Task: structure prediction
Amino acid sequence: MSEHRYRPEVEILSVTDTGRRRRWTEAEKVRIVEESFGPRGSVAETARRHDIGRTLLVRWRRQYRRGVLMGGSSARVTFMPVKVAQHSEAPTPEAEAVAGAGDRVEVTLISGRRLSIAASIDPTALARLVQVLDPS
Result:
């Protein structure tokens, strides 16, 4: 019993300025989330690869779907309601012009403006165009 020394059972770790939490920029979050949606990406595998919790990645994915995470882009793509109109028996001059121009789509905005665009237009470019013409 000569070897009695005080040995604490608990070791106290010092905390740095930022603490143990890591800081992720929105761009990093978006990159990780998009990777988890990719062909190889599963939530667990992507979370493991970036050393984050699965629940955190699921939360980021939910924010991404709602448009909260934009990754620095100010233009948020939104969907507009679509109404498919039946064609009348006699085509209008506008419809004939559109039919002769290849695969085109006619979009009527809420403001009443009508767009006749190529069916192969980039959705992001179309979203920006709609935002400019009908910002409501």
